[in-house]
Amino acid sequence: MDFKTFLRKNLLLTFCISATCICLAMAVVGLSFQPDAQFGYEVFFSPLFFAGLATLPSLVHYSSRELTLKQSLIRQLIHFLLLELVILSILYSVGQITSLAAGLALAAAIFVIDLIVNLILWINDKKTAGEINEALKILQND
Amino acid sequence: MNVRIKPISNIEEECLIIECVEVTSDIESIRSYALTKGQTLTGAADERIYRFELADVLYFEAVDERLFAYTKTRPYELKLRLYEVDQAYRQQHFIRCSKSFVINLMQVDSISPALNGRFHAHMKNGEIIIISRQYVADIKRILLGGK
């Protein structure tokens, strides 16, 4: 796969799903830790900003040649560690992480979001595989 | 170019001989065309030449500069390129699924999702072939008629 196709097909989808999941996580974590907090309109930019940051580590998945299962798994692990590192570092540097509990809760939220993103991508692929299998049956029975 | 057709009685002995001063791209095209015509293929295995049915081929695999056709019984080495079989046998439901493979859709048992956006083609003989994400759209388009 060339880099342009990778950018269009993989990164764009990851960005959109991440932005949606971050909105959801912000609501859940915010309601749990600071239910009375109030925000301005600028808060709408933060899911997009963090989704952009969350998408950057996905670049480790890019390869011009075919990866083996082991290579894919290793890259998946590197991706997750980079994701935690990038987002937690940014949040810490802007003073959003004030306690260990909040840090752990955010790390857990990032893990859950990454899991959900991968699950959605897998469900999407499963649906595609189902459509192809249906069409294969029709082709082979004709 | 002069063209001569000499009738023979034995189908096993059918062959096309090209006599040329130099192997140009035109000659190569004629060679590829002739090699990919019909429903049978000729391939080498165990230092012998065999004829086998195209429909029996599970998949073609390119290894370095060589091309192999895999059937349920054995692999055969062909004197063709992967892109030639990809172009020639589309009508017979052969389709490119990665840089090195062209699979026979009639010999695919099922498809399942794999890691990193790839898919697995489970062949009817139990083998699993990787389908690269970039070729999935092509397979969908061919099978679902552009849906």
Notes on the protein architecture:
The complex is a heterodimer of chains A (142) and B (147). In chain A, 77% of the residues lie in helices and 0% in strands. Chain A is built from 4 helices and no strands. With 142 residues, chain A is an all-alpha fold. With 147 residues, chain B is an alpha+beta fold. Helix content of chain B is 20%, strand content 35%. Chain B is built from 3 helices and 10 strands. In chain B, the strands form 3 sheets. A 5-stranded antiparallel β-sheet of chain B has the order 5-4-3-7-6, with helices on one face. In chain B, strands 8-9-10 form a 3-stranded antiparallel β-sheet. In chain B, strands 1-2 form a two-stranded antiparallel ribbon. In chain B, β6 and β7 form a beta hairpin. The longest helix of chain B is centred in the last third of the chain and has 12 residues, at 133-144. Chain B is elongated, with a radius of gyration of 17 Å. The mean pLDDT of chain B is 88. Classes of the chains: A mainly alpha (142), B alpha+beta (147). Chains A and B meet through α1, α3 and α4 of A and β8 and α3 of B.
Largest sheet of chain A: none
Radius of gyration of chain B: 17 Å
Percent range of helical residues of chain B: 10-25%
Regions with little confidence, pLDDT below 50 for 5+ residues of chain B: none
Distance between the termini of chain A: 33 Å
Q: Give Rg of chain A in angstroms.
A: 18 Å
Number of helical segments with 4 or more residues of chain B: 3
Describe the main β-sheet of chain B briefly: 5 strands, antiparallel
- Beta fraction of chain A: under 5%
**What would you call the quaternary organization?**
heterodimer
The global form of chain B is elongated
Structural class by sheet pairing and helices of chain A: mainly alpha
Q: Please work out how many helical segments of chain A DSSP would assign.
A: 4
Q: Percent range for helical residues of chain A? A: over 70%
